[in-house]
Amino acid sequence: MSAPSPSSTPPLVRLHEVRRRFLLGETAVDALAGISFTINSGEFLAVWGPSGSGKSTLMNVLGLIDTPSSGEVWFDGQDTRGLADDALTDFRGRRIGFVFQSFNLVPVLSALENVMLPLQIQGVPERQARGRAAAALDEVGLERFHGSRPDRLSGGQRQRVAIARALAIEPRLVIADEPTANLDSDNAAMVVALMRRLNHDKGVTFVFTTHDPRLLDQVDRRIHLRDGCIESDEHSA
Ligand SMILES: Nc1ncnc2c1ncn2[C@@H]1O[C@H](COP(=O)(O)OP(=O)(O)OP(=O)(O)O)[C@@H](O)[C@H]1O
Which residues cross the membrane (predicted)? Predict the structure, then answer.
């Protein structure tokens, strides 16, 4: 049997007319006002826009943490509306890695133990989890810091641990919400360059949000959000 042609491969993620409405007393706020787009496997995509434009809400919806008020989110060809809570948690845990602005590392655990955590939650045996976590830390250049607790690491190193933790599960998609917001400009550029290299060399698909227009030079595609709408969706030449 021949391999499917690229055109028959479904996008990794497809959003169709996604609306996320929050109620503030009597007032309804559409954080996402009915947006549609697709993400293909292997993309390196930034979502940017002013504060309140809907970036975090979009990351939560893409990451299957939040459910739209209306519209469809398809992931890996699966309509996620059909998944019950437990199935959704499992689906997310196996396919999506998360990187957060505030790193979200467990302070009493070493870098290695932090990276092992999502694997152990998935039931990966300890020996195997240790090996995969060590490889992920090596991949982000932290060979010498496996045993370090987060408080012994710089901000840039902590974010690299968080990226290793996201990668360890071998996700289909890594979602990073403002991964550089707590870093100085050198470390911010380094973290984006690291994500870029992992995208390029390993084919990891990244979507991240940023306020920093300087980081947009390094992406293949940028979606500009304003008031919950897509103002532009540009691909680099
Ligand atoms: N849980 C919530 N309850 C009520 N309103 C919310 C909630 N989450 C977000 N909103 C509103 O939705 C809109 C979009 O918020 P969101 O956090 O997605 O924007 P953002 O672009 O990520 O902003 P920032 O850059 O400041 O993080 C805002 O008007 C916000 O007040």
Answer: none
